[in-house]
Amino acid sequence: MAVFGLLAAAMGVVGLLAPDVMLTAMGFAPLPDASRAEGDHTLVLLTASSMAALNMGVYYVLASLADWKPFFRWTVPFRLLTCTVFTLAVVTGRAPAGFLGVGLWEGLGALATAGALRYENRSGRDGARRHAVPGADGVR
Prior knowledge:
Blueprint: H1 2-17, H2 19-25, H3 42-66, H4 69-91, H5 100-131
Helix pairs in contact: 1-2, 1-3, 4-5
């Protein structure tokens, strides 16, 4: 979670400071400001999503530092939803193929989080049984 948070925050900062770098990374061809049509709000939307990524990254890092398991669990279905929406955007031609990486990043992150939570849950339960003192909990 902390790694994802740091990466999200870093990408948010890059999007705020160098929007053309983010556009290129997602498969969009950046345009010089002089070439932008009146009413082109690409940079406004990129600024908004970059600020959201920065904030979200900080939330993930703070949740990680607090070891806030409910937050981790909540992210799994929403990251899978994000994966689905972004992947469909590419498949339907709404977004360029380079944007598929964003969807895959979310999907793989969701699966990794779910796997880590499951592993930790099983390890914690098993470890508690192995180290329990027989009869200490009233069960023999």
